[in-house]
Amino acid sequence: MTAAIAGIDTPRLDQLAIVFLVARICQTLTHTLFHESNFTVGIHFTFFAIQVHSYAMDGGDHHANRLGLVLAHATRRP
């Protein structure tokens, strides 16, 4: 919503939103489907780090909340 209200619609932001959403889903699946071990915690953290990286790489737009923009694009419907 934030991106739509701010009038921001870029292909890069769309790509980052997809990366963020896929990493979030993978993080959740790793957490819920596998028994906790050092290996699965490492995988879980890797997906979390991807989310943080996609959040930080939004193009430097400081006019709106970065995470809000990424999530808005990740969950929007065509």
Percentage beta strand: under 5%
What is the overall number of helices?
Answer: 4
Number of strands: 0
The biggest sheet, with number of strands, parallel, antiparallel or mixed sense and barrel status, is: none
Explain what this protein looks like in three dimensions:
There is one protein chain. By secondary structure, this protein is an all-alpha fold. It has one domain (2-75). It has four helices and no strands. It has helices spanning 2-6, 11-33, 38-56, 66-75. Helix 2 (11-33) runs antiparallel to helix 3. The longest helix has 23 residues, at 11-33. It is elongated and about 45 Å long. The two termini are 13 Å apart. The model has no long low-confidence stretch (mean pLDDT 77).
Short structural summary:
The protein has 78 residues and is mostly helical.
Detail the topology: elements first, then pairings.
Layout lengths: L1 H5 L4 H23 L4 H19 L9 H10 L3
Helix pairs in contact: 2-3, 2-4
Keywords:
78 residues, mainly alpha, 0% strand
